[in-house]
Design a protein that fits this description.
about 80 residues, alpha+beta, Rossmann fold, 2 helices, 3 strands
C-alpha cells in the first residue's frame, strides 16, 4: 500500500542574497513515523533545509507539500555541536 509522504520537498533551491547556493534542486519524501538524519560537512545546507522546513527561512524556489497541515505547526529542531 503506497501512502502519500508526510512531507514532500520538490526541486527546492535556496540561494542567499550574496549569491551563495545553499541548496540546489533537492527532492525528498519523508513518510509518516519515518526518522531521517541530515549528515554532511559544514556549509552544505543542512541547517538551511531545517529552517526552510520549519518555516523560519524561505526557499528561493521549489515546493513543500504536507499531507496533513496540522503537523506543519509541530516542527521543532535543536542544533547539536
Amino acid at each position: 500500500m503506497n501512502q502519500k509522504p508526510a512531507i514532500s520537498l520538490t526541486h527546492v533551491n535556496k540561494t542567499f542574497d550574496n549569491g551563495t547556493v545553499a541548496i540546489k534542486d533537492l527532492n525528498l519524501n519523508i513518510n509518516k513515523s519515518e526518522f531521517i538524519s541530515l549528515v554532511g560537512p559544514s556549509g552544505c545546507g543542512k541547517s538551511t533545509l531545517l529552517r526552510i522546513i520549519a518555516g523560519l527561512s524561505t526557499m528561493s524556489s521549489g515546493n513543500i507539500e504536507w499531507s496533513d497541515r496540522a503537523h506543519q505547526k509541530e516542527i521543532a529542531f535543536v542544533f547539536q555541536e
